[in-house]
Amino acid sequence: MEAPASTVYLKDYRPPSFLIPEVVLDIDLQSEDEALVQATLAVRRNPEGAASGTLVLDLDEVAVEAVAIDGEPLVPARWQADARHLTIRDVPESFRLATRSRIHPRRNTKLMGIYTSSTGFFSLCEAEGFRRITPFLDRPDVMARYTVTLHADEERYPVLLANGNLEAQGAEGGGRHWARWVDPFPKPSYLFAVVAARLDREQDSFRTRSGRSVLLQFFVEPGKLDQGRFALDALKQAMKWDEERYGLEVDLDEYNVVAVGDFNAGAMENKGLNIFNTKLVLARADISTDGDFNFIDRTVAHEYFHNWTGNRVTCRDWFQLALKEGLTVFREQQYAGDRYSRAVARIQAVRNLRTGQFPEDAGPMAHPVRPAAYQQVSNFYTATVYQKGAELVRMMHTLVGPENFRKGIALYFRLHDGHAVTTDALVEAIEQASGADLGQFRLWYEQAGTPRLAVRDRYDEATHTYELTVTQSCPPTPGQPTKQALHIPLAVGLLGPNGREFALRVEGEKNGRGTSTVLSLRGETEVFRFLDVPARPVPSLARNFSAPVLVDYPYDEDALQLLLGYDSDPFNRWEAGQRLAMDLLLVGVADFRAGRPVQFPDYLAQAFGRVLADAEQDPAFAAEALSLPPEVVVAEQLQEIDPLAVHRVRFAMRTFLAERLHDAFQGAYERYETPGAYSPDAVSAGRRALRNLSLAFLMDLGAPTTRQRAVRQLETATNMTDALAALSALANCDCPERRVALDAFYAKWQDEPLVVDKWLATEALSRLPGTVERVRDLTLHPAFTLQNPNKVYALLGSFGVNQVNFHAADGSGYRLMTEQALLLDAVNPQVASRMVRNFERYGRFEPVRRDLMRAALEQIAAKPGLSRETAEVVGKALA
Ligand code: 0A1
Ligand code: ZN
User: Fold this and answer.
1) pTM over 0.95
2) Which residues are in the Peptidase M1 alanyl aminopeptidase Ig-like fold domain (predicted)?
3) Which atom of ligand 1 is nearest to the CA of 129?
4) CA distance 198 to 160
5) Which of 152, 182, 574, 823 has the fewest CB atoms within 10 Å around its CB?
């Protein structure tokens, strides 16, 4: 049994007592089972830390064999290693500490530290994995220059990589070789990386705007070089973008990217040696969807952007994770907006926030963007830190404007380059550069929960004055029963009766502001008065989703149709469609639960019909506008979640629209066929999205001719986007074609692990009865293993978001997840705790499911030897 988890508090932060400016590592990969790690650390007391004569290094599953100071071996009485620490007594002010230890890469199923995958040895150190390689002060405010020598069998592991530049390499006895890498940049240990593997290499170069040439190398599994090109080109795009947008140049001579099939995260920004999950780097039209191409492009950019926002300026401690992640996700979103459709990129980001972050913020794991406490930092790589963290940066961008924001970022680097800092450093730099007062804004980093804005209005015919009264509130979250008012940017416009927008003049302000303005909400209730408004307007609120809040305003259907048709802000056009559908879905759910018939009005079909009729202007936007609010987003609105009711009603709305707009969907399906060769660009992808969305609507009607269309699309598709869309449609259709299609798909792609993942996910996401049994069978399928995170995410992760079958009323879905999560917990606790999070919101469900989910959590909690990672989640859920 692991020691009971203890809580780490932000308020307890103290600078380290010692610093380690230099690390020399010698890693001898003797076999898959064992590596010998010899570390020589330059250690000195930190004048800013508490004086101490005892050095306590972190360690985890490392067997320390010997310790020496300044070349003198220490007698065992001077040092002591337990499960978590190496403690050395009576150390001098400044010394060289040498340790010799052993690690066991193949046994490392947690995939943190150095572990094995099919092609060799790989590493992941964020957040606390370096201590699984060698004893160290494994915290991000300890920054060192690293020199790393790797030794391994030459034939089996021809590629030897570490951070920085290759300094020397050579052969040694017994068919082995070595390589020495020197990283000129001081870095925290979480950015350390090594690779020793058999990999193919694609090479290119990038010329920076100051004229330096940077060597770019991508390393992928043998035979997969053709799948690496897209990501390599994306890297060059991202490098160029960061120069143009932020004036930031790549600072390295060599930038290496390695793909590995076994990886806990999506990708990792290790200095000069990014390591990527194969899923987020390998791309080819026949095996990757448009979504994959887009995600790969953004992730390559994200990891590259970290080179400045994360690596050059890093986090003081893990409470500051959003310093690097919020800013980097925001930069990634800007990049995506520039490269794809800005509106569609924003819509997708907000949909992600609503499906992933809003529920988290309303549950037992709710935490501020800068948490104040954690047990396991790995549990805090969350939608809140990443997505809401990016929204906070975006709000500052909105409040100070793009020019000032850029100046703020420049100042941030001028002040903090090479340092480990807190989220305040970023806010302060933006504040200083812009002159804005972000004092109250800082609360966003400290307060959890999704704020709600209640907006009410009044129009005075006589004076032509329009008044908006905005009241903010924020529900209690764990440890935060009451909240203070936040500084919220609320972007608004006013539409006249014919859809034309009024010029805005806000009372108390000298100048007019065009047709869109950002109101600054600071008090609990604020009144904004607009002057010279010729007629009662329809307000367009929180344009471009100017703040991560819920906006409550009593729109009627005429107002929503006006916004959907005419709002100059495309995000709010989309939002109006979502509201229109949401209001009707909520009425439908109430009717369904009361046993009344579920019906939808004509105006819904007319509104969606107009979107479809206008689709040619921007098919990608139309596809987003025609997508109904996801089931989890609807569920979030309910007092008590009944996932089956939500599913049934949403499905009824889909079939209603499919019937009423049958010919239009059919027309779209035919019109938007991919012409010619496949290209993942935004326009082509948008056309495919609309076509496949049309297919999905039509398939819900279940006509045999449509089924045949889907089968034909699956069989003749020249790209994975179209193939997978057809397969998913068939997987949700109770028809004879279904099983044939799924089996044939697996047979065709069984040797492509990333496509097998898509197949597993498609099976697990099916809404049909029998899915629980099918998923259970698939856990025993040769293609599935709990050892590989991608397989777990594909099968169990997808099943966990299946609103019908995971939440089966007989509890069978919960039982399956519980069994698998417990097995997984002994293999890979980080991934297991993510699966267990599927249960955390049990308190929001109707009584039957609530009790079943709670029982599942109790069963998991009672398991002897439960990992700290999972224990934190169940502990908080049951608290
Ligand atoms: N820092 C990486 C992703 C990452 C997340 C969690 C990890 O382990 C708990 C490791 C890496 C990124 O943001 O790209
Ligand atoms: Zn990141």
Assistant:
1) yes
2) 449-553
3) 8
4) 9
5) 823
Q: How many residues can be counted in the chain? A: 879
Locate tokens 């500084």: which residue? Answer: 487
Is 303 in the active site? Answer: yes
Distance between CA 588 and CA 605 in Å, rounded? 15
Q: What does the pLDDT look like over 19-65, one tens digit per residue?
A: 999 999 999 999 999 999 999 999 999 999 999 999 999 999 999 99
Instruction: Give per-residue pLDDT as tens, 516-538.
Output: 999 999 999 999 999 999 999 99
| CA pair distance 812, 772, nearest whole angstrom | 7
Cα 275 from chain centroid (whole Å): 16
Are the C-beta atoms of residues 646 and 589 closer than 8 Å to each other?
A: yes
For ligand 1, say whether the CB of 334 is within 6 Å of any of its atoms.
Answer: no
Task: Tell me phi and psi for residue 729, to 5 degrees.
Answer: -60, -45
CA-closest candidate to residue 256, choices 244, 242, 267? 267
Alpha carbon nearest to ligand 1 atom 1, residue: 268
- Cβ(534)–Cβ(461) below 8 Å: no
Q: Do the beta carbons of residue 709 and residue 695 sit within 8 Å?
A: yes
Is the complex ipTM higher than 0.90?
A: yes
Beta strands in 4-126 (DSSP E): 8-9, 18-29, 35-45, 55-58, 63-69, 72-73, 79-81, 85-88, 94-103, 113-117, 120-124
Distance CA 25, CA 103 (A): 14
Burial-class residue 359 by CB neighbours within 10 Å (0-12, 13-18, 19+).
buried
The 3-state secondary structure of 765-815 reads CCCCCCHHHHHHHHHCCCCCCCCCHHHHHHHHHHHHCCCCCCCCCCCHHHH
Q: Distance from the CA of 291 to the center of ligand 2, in angstroms?
A: 19
For Cα atoms 563, 392, 518, give the angle at the middle one, nearest 5 degrees.
Answer: 45
Alpha-carbon distances of 569 from 505, 543, 683, rounded to whole Å:
19, 6, 20
Task: Output the CA 325–ligand 2 centroid distance in Å.
Answer: 5
Per-residue pLDDT of 421-462, as tens digits, reads: 999 999 999 999 999 999 999 999 999 999 999 999 999 999
Alpha-carbon distance 809 to 642, whole Å? 10
Beta bridge partners of 688: none
**Cα 284 to chain center, whole Å?**
23
Q: Which atom of ligand 1 is nearest to the CA of 325?
A: 13
**Residues whose CB is less than 8 angstroms from the CB of residue 545 and which lie 6 or more positions away in sequence, other chains included:** 346, 350, 571, 575
159 close to 198: Cβ distance less than 8 angstroms:
yes
Secondary structure of 102-159 as H, E, C letters: EECHHHCCCCCEEEEECCEEEEECCCCCHHHCCCECCCCCCEEEEEEEEEEECCCCCE
Q: Contact 730/742 with Cβ under 8 angstroms?
A: yes
